[in-house]
Amino acid sequence: MPAILTTNQLCVSFGEHQVINDVNLCIERGKLVSIIGPNGAGKTTLFNLISGQIKPTRGDISFNGETVTKLPVPMRVRRGIGRSFQLTNIFPELTVLENIRLSLQAAGKDYYSIFPKLSLRRRQLTAADELAEKCMLSDKKEVFAQHLAHGDKRKLEIAMLLALKTELLLLDEPTAGISVDDIPAILEVIERIKSEGRHTIVLIEHKMEMVLHLSDELIVLFNGELLAKGDPKEIIKDERVQTAYLGGMHSESIKSG
Ligand SMILES: Nc1ncnc2c1ncn2[C@@H]1O[C@H](COP(=O)(O)OP(=O)(O)OP(=O)(O)O)[C@@H](O)[C@H]1O
């Protein structure tokens, strides 16, 4: 399976603090890959680099065979890299359907049109409807986003990413802050998207049960370095991974071990 995303010797420092250190990733198309690691390991920073929020101090990022290292965020979105933004991209005073429709419009050629054609608007509404259903929001289509429960807002965010024709979904803790009762629905939405096989999903998640259930592959970050990568069931048995989680590795470089 060809890689959709690769990073080559990716590094980023904030002042003296090297947060990502020489990370070489290869994410295969159509897979669901989870990034795990203790707090402060650099997981969110890695997402920031891939989505373009920050630029690396060294190294390269390729998406679909094209070097995107220097591309700004909107151009990466256009190429198909989409990131969940912890609800900041939702328009609270619009309905679920309108939020999804606007993302469809943003992904289309009529983005700058003030009066998009009526037929096009109808097509967008049909597509928005389908995405609402896929993301288990059928009964909330006419609800204003501001009135949604937190879990439903996360589902809407995923629907909007799909509407933007995202090929690579970067989901940063999609179940964070969600009530225990709402977690299965988010899980199901992610599983539905995965089972279609049309998207690649990279997940940052602390809930190990969920990670093991969903992931084709695990990547373990520790102190900004890639500690391990591979089959989830094998990786969690890895002694170095267990030691990292138990806090035994502190700040030494993992490469010396
Ligand atoms: N803009 C920044 N300026 C300075 N330091 C930063 C910046 N962004 C992140 N860091 C530092 O980089 C390290 C890694 O942070 P990051 O948020 O990527 O970790 P994480 O693995 O996502 O942690 P968590 O699981 O707690 O979310 C932390 O020590 C953090 O303080």
UniProtKB/TrEMBL annotation:
The keyword ATP-binding applies. It comes from the Bacteria. Keywords: ATP-binding, Nucleotide-binding, Transport. Residues 5-248 form the ABC transporter domain. One of its GO terms (molecular function) is ATP binding. PANTHER family: ABC TRANSPORTER ATP-BINDING PROTEIN (PTHR45772:SF3), CONSERVED COMPONENT OF ABC TRANSPORTER FOR NATURAL AMINO ACIDS-RELATED (PTHR45772). This is ABC transporter ATP-binding protein. It comes from Rossellomorea oryzaecorticis. The lineage of its organism: Bacteria, Bacillati, Bacillota, Bacilli, Bacillales.
